[in-house]
Structures are given as structure tokens and as C-alpha cells.
Design goal:
This protein has helices spanning about 1-20, 35-40, 135-140; strands spanning about 25, 45, 60-65, 75-85, 95-105, 110-115, 120, 125-130, 145-150, 155, 160-165, 170-175, 200, 210-215, 225-240, 255-260, 265-270. It is mostly beta strands. It has one domain (about 20-270). The strands form four sheets. Strands 1, 3, 6, 7, 8, 9, 13, 14, 15 and 17 form a ten-stranded mixed sheet that branches. Strands 4-5-10 form a three-stranded antiparallel sheet, with no helix packed on it. Strand 14 (about 210-215) and strand 15 form a beta hairpin.
């Protein structure tokens, strides 16, 4: 009996090993509209509001750009960073503004996304996997493989929450993107910029970078797969309060950054 069990375990191990060996990565090829999509996120901005005394700012707005080496469009998929407002969200910034990594299937057959092999990595070393089998929330409320029907669009993550009927506590089980960054970690303190002043950075000099890796395949078993990579970086830091004005659209004086549109990736961080 023990020999049979041992033989069975060995066969399972060999099968698993064989399966892992057959998985191979196919290099992605940017589609002809790749640079056009990237350029939508790389617009110039400027502060519209200046304090009369030019005091030192305690509020910092970061404008993110997408670097030109990113692959947002391939012959199979198109990845966009979509900004939306969620009214009365359980957790949000003060503008009710969040971002979704949206994936469009450009083919006439299903596309499969392996969220267990999709990552968000920051330049400070922080790394997030979009499906963690060891996380009870993920294993209970998420599916590792996201199937996108032909010509359809799906979000890598959505906004979903549940309320525990026993203690009435709300638990967020799925949340979209936020471009938060740590001021102290990148050496920014009071005096870095004046109110209304801005500093520009290149891809190499940027104080903070974020990379998204999307694992996709035309095969449900991922025998062959590809990795699309989108690299974002802080292009500009402006000493101002609230980059956008969704929640307070009647208070025009609070709209402080000109050039912000649906493709602008912004993040406001206070230093208190």
C-alpha cells in the first residue's frame, strides 16, 4: 500500500514538473497604436493657483507619466489606466477618485489573465500580487484566472466590499488602484517647493516609479503566455492642494492644476 502511495505521489510530481516545464513565455510586440496610447497620459500641467506670500507648501500633488518603453497595446490586448469616481466609497481619497487597470481583448477568441502572475512593483521595493492563494480574502472572493471574452473589456481588479452579518463590519474584498507614495521615503519635506511651484523629473531622476506586469494568454492552461509591462513614474511634483475637483466642482478656486483631464494620473499627499 505504501509503495502504491509513493508511486502515485511520484507520478503527480512528475506530471506537475512536466506541466511547469511546458509553460513558455512569448515576447510581447507593441502594436502600432502603442505610442499613441502612452502619449495620452503624458500631458503638460501647470499650477493655476499661487498663494500671495509664496509660503512653503505642506501639500504635494504628483503627476504621473508613462514611460515610452511601456507596452500598453499588443495585437492581442490593450491596457489602459482608467480614472473613475466612486460616490460614497467605503475607502477613498477625498476626491472619491480611483483608478482601474482596464484590459481590452482585441481578438476574436477569449483572452485569459493569470492574476497570480500579475504584479504591481514600486521603486521602494514594495510588491503586490493581484491574487495570493495564501490570502483568505483572495481565495474566498476572487478567481485567479480572469477570462475576457472576444472584443470585451474587463478590469484587473474591481471595487467590491461585503458586510459581515455577525458584526456589521465592512470588509473590502477587491479594490482598484491608487497612486499613493511615501513623502519621507523619497526625501520630501516642508520647503521642497513653495505653494504653486513645481519640479520636473525624467524617468531616471524621478523619486518614485511604479510598474504593472500583466500576464495573459490565449490558452486557458497558459502553456504559452506573454507579459505586458507598464512603467509609471512621477514626472512632476507641484506644491498645491487637490489636483482635481470632482467633489467640489462649484468651488472653482480649488481647481489648482491646469491640464488635468481623464487621462491624468495624479496623487495628492499632505505633509502634516
Amino acid at each position: 500500500m505504501m509503495k502504491k502511495i509513493a508511486l502515485f505521489c511520484m507520478l503527480c510530481l512528475l506530471a506537475a514538473t512536466a506541466q511547469s516545464v511546458t509553460r513558455s513565455e512569448t515576447a510581447v510586440k507593441p502594436d502600432k497604436n502603442n505610442q499613441k496610447i502612452i502619449s495620452q497620459y503624458n500631458l503638460c500641467h501647470k499650477s493655476m493657483y499661487m498663494y500671495p506670500d509664496q509660503s512653503l507648501s505642506k501639500d504635494f500633488t504628483a503627476i504621473f507619466w508613462v514611460d515610452e518603453n511601456s507596452v500598453m497595446s499588443t495585437p492581442d490586448i490593450e491596457v489602459t489606466i482608467v480614472k473613475k469616481r466612486i460616490d460614497n466609497a467605503i475607502y477613498n481619497d477625498k476626491e472619491d477618485r480611483v483608478y482601474f487597470i482596464q484590459i481590452k481583448n482585441k481578438t476574436d477568441q477569449p483572452i485569459y489573465i493569470d492574476r497570480g502572475s500579475c504584479y504591481r512593483t514600486d521603486s521602494d521595493g514594495a510588491r503586490h500580487c493581484y491574487y495570493d492563494a495564501h490570502n483568505p480574502t483572495d481565495s474566498l472572493h476572487k478567481q485567479r484566472v480572469l477570462t475576457i471574452p472576444p472584443r470585451a473589456t474587463r478590469n484587473l481588479t474591481d471595487y467590491r466590499w461585503i458586510r459581515n452579518p455577525q458584526n456589521n463590519i465592512v470588509e473590502i474584498v477587491e479594490y482598484p488602484e491608487e497612486f499613493a507614495w511615501n513623502l519621507e521615503a523619497v526625501g520630501i519635506t516642508v520647503g521642497y517647493v513653495h505653494n504653486g511651484e513645481s519640479r520636473l523629473f525624467t524617468e531616471k531622476t524621478s523619486p518614485f516609479r511604479r510598474t504593472f506586469q500583466i500576464c495573459y494568454s490565449k490558452e486557458s492552461d497558459f502553456a504559452t503566455y506573454s507579459m505586458a509591462q507598464i512603467n509609471c513614474y512621477i514626472r512632476e511634483i507641484i506644491g498645491c492642494y487637490y489636483p482635481e475637483n470632482y467633489q467640489y466642482d462649484k468651488m472653482k478656486s480649488r481647481l489648482q492644476v491646469e491640464g488635468v483631464d481623464e487621462y491624468s494620473i495624479t496623487s495628492w499627499v499632505p505633509l502634516y
